[in-house]
Amino acid sequence: MIDGEALRREMTVLTAGTAGDGSGQAARNGVLQLLKGRLADGRAIAERMLRDDGGGSACAARLSHLMDEIIRALYDFAVTHVYRVKNPSSAERMAVVAVGGYGRGTLAPGSDIDLLFLLPYKQTPWGEQTVEYMLYML
Question: Where does the Glutamate-ammonia ligase adenylyltransferase repeated domain lie (predicted)?
């Protein structure tokens, strides 16, 4: 349905001309188009599989997996290519947690993506920028 590693590689290629810096508008536009395309492709595959097997719960699990891979790839891109920290402290880390139905591994078609960003004891500009970037891209 989606190959998360291949998606990460394709996103990284978008930074080839900028020595790995993905903060420019061209990289942002490229990543956004790539993610939109993968999401549309994955949804189409999930719909075809639903029509074939009639498994509503299985379809919801497939959609959840699709979003998991997209969010993982986006997070990795954000912290590796957009908001890189050369010497990160304990304050420059976070966990991205799915909540609600999505957090239970069942994402209904057209449903909201409910995310919780768990940050260390003290918010940093890095954390704020990373969260904003991810939310704007989603």
Answer: 61-124
In SS3 terms, 3-41 reads as CHHHHHHHHHHCCHHHCCCCCCHHHHHHHHHHHHHHHHH
State the Cα–Cα distance between residues 136 and 131, nearest whole angstrom.
9
Do the beta carbons of residue 134 and residue 109 sit within 8 Å?
no
Inter-residue contact 20 to 13 (CB < 8 Å): no
Instruction: Tell me how far apart the alpha carbons of residues 105 and 122 are, in angstroms, rounded to a whole number.
Output: 30
* Residues 6+ away with beta carbon under 8 Å from 2: 38, 41, 42, 65, 66, 69, 70
> Which one-letter amino acid corresponds to residue 64?
S
Tell me the pLDDT tens digit for each residue of 20-61.
999 999 999 999 999 999 999 999 999 999 999 999 999 999
Q: Write out pLDDT tens, residues 75-129.
A: 999 999 999 998 888 888 999 999 999 999 999 998 999 999 999 888 899 999 9
